[in-house]
Amino acid sequence: MRVRIGLVGAGGVGARHARTLAGFDDVELVGIADADPAACAGLAAELGIPVVDTVDQLLQASLDGVWLCVPPFAHGELELRAVRAGLPFFVEKPLAADLAVAETVAEVVAASAVPTATGYHWRHLDTVARAREVLATSSPRLVGLTWQDKVPPPAWWSTAALSGGQVVEQATHVLDLARVLVGEVVEVHAAAAPSSAPGRDVADATTAILAFASGAVGTLAATCTLAAKGRAGIEVAADGVLVELTETSLRIVRADGDEQLQPAVDGRLAVDRAFVDVLSGRPAPPGLVDYAEALCTHRVACAIAESVRTNGPVRVGASGR
Ligand SMILES: NC(=O)c1ccc[n+]([C@@H]2O[C@H](COP(=O)([O-])OP(=O)(O)OC[C@H]3O[C@@H](n4cnc5c(N)ncnc54)[C@H](O)[C@@H]3O)[C@@H](O)[C@H]2O)c1
Asked: Where is each Gfo/Idh/MocA-like oxidoreductase N-terminal domain found (predicted)?
C-alpha cells in the first residue's frame, strides 16, 4: 500500500521535500497547493503531479498525511485545518514567527491523536547520536552555538514579524541540538546588533547567554551579514572531552586523541523517511521530532528574541502568550 501525501508550499524547501518523497517507492504524492498557484506549476510538471487550487481541496483528497512547507508567518490555521481533518502533518521549522501561534497549535495537537513531525532534520544524523552518547557520560559544562550566514533569498526573511528573525528562523537548529546534547535551557539573556541594511529589520547579529537546567552555561552567536554561509554548529566542553558538531562533521577531542566523523546519514532524506514510516504504521524512529518536542526548542528561540526586545533576562517558556 502506498502512503498518500499532499504538499502545501512549493517554495525552496517544499520542492526539496517533494523530490525526496517522490523518490520513495511507498509514497504517492497526490498534489501540491500553494498560496501562489503559479509557484507550483514547475514543480508539479517536473514530478507529474497535479496542482490543487486550494488547501481545503487538497486536505479532502483522502490523504494519509500532509507536508506543510510554508514560511513562519503562514503557520497556525493550516495546522489547525489538518488536525480538524484528522490528518497527520509534517511541518517545517520554525513552528511559527512567534510563540503564541505555536502554543495554540500545540494545545490542539495534544488534544488530538494526530501524529506530527517537524523539520529538525539534524536530529537524524548518526553523528548527533554519537555526540549524544559521548556527552551522556561526561557532564557538559560549557556550550558554544554558532550560526554565521547570509540573508536567505525569500523576501519575507528580512522582516522580523514574518520570519521571526534569524534566531527563530535559522539558529533554531543549533538551539535544538543544545537541548538534545546538554538538556533544557531555563533562562536566556540576549543582545543584538541592529540591522544596517535598508529594508531589513532582522538584526545583523544576535548574541545570547544561555543557562541550562543542569547548571551548564552557554552562548549563542548568530549573524546574517556574510556573503555565504559560514560556520553553523555546536561545541560542548564536558569533563575531559570537547565535542564539535556541525551538519557535516563531528570531532571529539580527548587527552588520548581526536575522533573525527562525517555523517553516514542524509538527515534531509531521513526526516521524510521517518515520518513516512510512521504513516505506514511502523514505530517512530529515534530522531523524529514531533510538534510538542519542537515547541520546546521554539520556546528557547522566542525567549532569545524577547530578551533582545526587552533588554533583560527571560525565563524560557514564561513568555509570548
Ligand atoms: N529544515 C531546513 O533545513 C529548512 C531549509 C530551508 C527552509 N526551511 C523552512 O521552510 C520554510 C519555508 O522556506 P522556503 O525557503 O521554502 O520559503 P519560500 O518562500 O521559498 O516558499 C514558501 C512557499 O509557501 C507558499 N505559501 C505562503 N503562505 C502560504 C499559505 N498560507 N498556504 C499555502 N502556501 C503558502 C509561498 O507562496 C511559497 O511558494 C521556512 O520556515 C524555512 O525556515 C527549512
From this structure: 3-113
Residue 28 is given by DSSP the state E
Between the CA of 48 and the centroid of ligand 1 the distance, in Å, is: 21
Q: How many CB atoms lie within 10 A of CB 280?
A: 14
CATH code of the region 122-265+297-315:
3.30.360.10
- Cα–ligand 1 centroid distance for 8 (angstroms): 9
- Residue spans of the domains in the chain: they are 3-119+269-288, 122-265+297-315
Are 209 and 218 a contacting pair, CB within 8 Å?
A: yes
Q: How far apart are CA 105 and CA 217, in angstroms?
A: 31
Query: 3-119+269-288 — its CATH code?
Result: 3.40.50.720
Residue 318: the pLDDT is 59
Confidence of residue 320 (pLDDT cuts 50, 70, 90): very low
Q: Where does ligand 1 bind, in terms of residues with CB under 6 Å?
A: 8-14, 34-36, 39, 55, 69-72, 74, 92-94, 119, 121, 154, 169
